[in-house]
Amino acid sequence: MSSTAQVPSPSARRLAAPAPGWTKTTDVVVVGSGVAGLTTALRVREAGLRVLVVTKAMLDDGSTRWAQGGIAAALGEGDTPEQHLEDTLVAGAGLCDEEAVRMLVTEGPGAVRRLIATGATFDQDDEGEILLTREGGHHRRRIAHAGGDATGAEISRALVEAVRTDDDLELIEHALVLDLLTDAKGRTAGLTLHVMGEGQRDGVGAVHARAVVLATGGLGQVFSATTNPAVSTGDGVALALRAGAEVADLEFVQFHPTVLWLGPDAEGQQPLISEAVRGEGAHLVDADGVRFMVGQHELAELAPRDIVAKGIMRRMHETGAEHMFLDGRHFGAAMWEERFPTILASCRSHGIDPVTELIPVAPAAHYASGGVRTDLRGHTSVSGLYACGEAACTGVHGANRLASNSLLEGLVFAERIAADIIERDRLGKAPPPPP
Ligand code: SIN
Fold first, then answer.
1. Residue nearest to atom 8 of ligand 1 (CA)
2. Which atom of ligand 1 is nearest to the CA of 149?
3. pLDDT tens-digit profile of 144-155?
4. Is 305 a catalytic site residue?
5. DSSP letters for 347-406
6. What CATH number should be reported for the domain holding residue 124?
7. Is residue 432 in some structural domain?
8. What is the pLDDT of residues 68-93, one digit of tens each?
9. Which residue range is the domain that position 213 belongs to?
10. How far is the CA of 366 from the centre of ligand 1 (A)?
């Protein structure tokens, strides 16, 4: 069963917030600078609205940059949104919102093409067709990738460049949002923030806006070992709760099965070994070389992520081992260098050569499938407050996100949110809370 929660009125805490030293007015504030935040900002700007992006570090410091495997969409010959839907529902363990998933997989291919038009370049074959790989839970090759295993870095590069070259799109980096502001009717009225090292706007300020989009990413840093960068501390969920918004499914934190094992005391962000490595044929083995996932699921190492992570943990407990191994030695040096250059470099920097050695791996916290509850246009339960990407719970992931659906969700829902904001601006209507 999926779950929702809401905290009581946050007014007592809000009274304690410091008074703003500066103020500014805009149409929309986007908090966060990953694929979801920057896509929302760019699409809203295209319609001529004023947009301010605020981010607590630098524009490309969020999770998007670290995504390796890719972005899932039914782009390949013979693939259909219906098949993508099936795989997503199975991975979600019966807790997905089918309408939300249908929308995601149907609008996904178009959203990926628009991302390409914005400047992102995906790996292609000699005929210029996008190369597609497989990951856990997918019955087909449907994951588009860039730079081999540097998909997030390429998407982030393209979006950051588009944002930085748009002179009318305003940015404040190193800005920690303190609280959301609401008017007497409980509608979103902007936010307060603390800016450091930006010069003109240093200190505490207030931004007045009719719409705020929370695209703050996940919360992996709550766990001792995670694939998430240092900025992933659940800020969006905390802000939304303090504003009285509903959150859902926070218990569904996905553990990535194959994270480079750096010792029992390793803490903070750990190097990811993309599921695409298994998608291209690497095997999980124990210390005796046994492929322990075979027989546990029809897809063996490519079962949905929760099943593989549990399979690894079970084998670790059975054998008393601290980790399992990923065997990709049969790829050979050329394939490692061409297809997985980031992972190869990362392993080698830790003294492991995947071309000749087994890679020690163990699960680590990776993705928050739940978050701030939204409807299909990104509305939260607070009027004028939207949530998008990993910070949101749109219903597409259920209990367990299908691999590489996250960048897609960020893209598709960002476009939906932008469309909603633009439409409401034209009609002069404030966003309603969801039914
Ligand atoms: C990976 O490359 O294994 C991660 C992709 C994802 O989290 O969807």
1. 404
2. 2
3. 999 999 999 999
4. yes
5. HHHTT--TTTSPEEEEEEEEEES-EEE--TT-B-SSTTEEE-GGGEE-SSSTTSPPTTHH
6. 3.50.50.60
7. no
8. 999 999 999 999 999 999 999 999 99
9. 4-251+369-427
10. 9
